[in-house]
Amino acid sequence: EKSWGLALRGQNKRLNINSKLHLQVSAKTYYRQINNWIQWIPNPQGVWSPRNVKSVANYGGMAWLESSFEQGKGWVFSGFFSLSATKTFTTKSSIANDASLYKQQIYVPVFQTEARIRYQTPNWYIQIEVPYTSKRYISSDHSNHLPVFFTAFV
Fold first, then answer.
1. CB contact set of 112 (below 8 Å; sequence gap of 6+)
2. Other residues' Cβ atoms within 10 Å of the Cβ of residue 127
3. pLDDT of 80-110, one tens digit each?
C-alpha cells in the first residue's frame, strides 16, 4: 500500500470560566488517499489471499469537549463528549464489477461518539461511560450490516 494524507488539529487552552469551572475544546479533520489497498479475495478455486486491488479515500473529523468542576480538596465532577465521523470508500478497483465502488468500506462505522461523566474524591471515583457506534457494513455491496450499538460502563 502507498498513501498520502493531511490532518489539521485545533485545540484551545484550558478555558477557566471561573476558579472552579474549566472547559477545553479540540477538533481534528483529516484526508487520506491510499493506493494498492490490500483486500482478501478468493481466487477461482475458492482460496482466499491478500491482494493489492483498490484505491481508497478516507476523510473525516473529530471533536471533543471536556469540562470539570472542582469542588475543593480533590473533589471534582467532570464530563467528556466526543463525536467522530469517518468516510472511507473505494475510488478505483481492479476487481470486475466491484460492488464497493464509492461505498463505505466494510467494518468502518461512519459515526462514533462517547460520553463520560466522573465524580472524583481524594480516595475514590465513580465513572459512567457510554460509547456509541453506528452500523458497520459487513458486505461490500452493503446488503448486510452489523446494527447500531451502544453500551454503558460503570
1. 82, 83, 84, 86, 131, 132, 133, 134
2. 13
3. 999 999 999 989 988 888 888 899 998 999 9
All 3 cell numbers of residue 72?
475543593
C-alpha cell at 119: 465524580
Q: How many CB atoms lie within 10 A of CB 106?
A: 18
Q: What is the separation, in whole angstroms, between the first and last Cα of the chain?
A: 41
- Residue pLDDT, tens place only, 17-43: 888 999 999 999 999 999 988 888 888
**Cα dihedral 57/81/28/54 (nearest 10):** -10
Whole-Å CA distances, 15 to 69, 95, 141: 12, 52, 46
Distances (CA, A) of 121 to 9, 39, 70, 126: 33, 49, 10, 9
Specify the pTM. Answer: 0.79
Residue reference for cell 453500551: 151
Q: How many CB atoms lie within 10 A of CB 132?
A: 15
Q: What distances in angstroms separate CA 111 from CA 22, 28, 36, 45, 79, one per listed residue? A: 27, 15, 26, 37, 20
